């Protein structure tokens, strides 16, 4: 059950990320920052899109490169906010 929930969250996060940069769908395992798929300015867009799509609030202290490095890292961040 937990694994299924994690996959569902990852899919939702991926959907939001692809709205910001459609190229992410072909690079889901990549380091999003290192590859330039998202940059510091786009992180702001990602945060706003995630907050709107998932009805959550991401604390500015959580907006770190580590939390936005990969699709999985973003999904874990979102899960931690939702389950808090």
What does this structure look like?
The chain is mainly α. The protein is 55% helix and 0% strand. It is built from three helices and no strands. The chain has helices spanning 2-20, 40-54, 71-82. Helix 1 packs across helix 2 and helix 1 (2-20) crosses helix 3 (71-82). The longest helix has 19 residues, at 2-20. The protein starts with a helix and ends with a helix.
Briefly, what is this?
The chain is an all-alpha fold and 84 residues long. Helix content is 55%, strand content 0%. Helix 1 crosses helix 2 (40-54) and helix 1 packs across helix 3.
Uncertain runs are none
Biggest sheet character: none
DSSP strand content = under 5%
Average pLDDT works out at 90
Structural class computed from helices and strand pairing = mainly alpha
Given the structure, what is the number of helices? 3
Based on the model shown, name its key terms:
84 residues; mainly alpha; 3 helices; 0% strand
List the helices and strands and how they pair.
Elements: H1 2-20, H2 40-54, H3 71-82
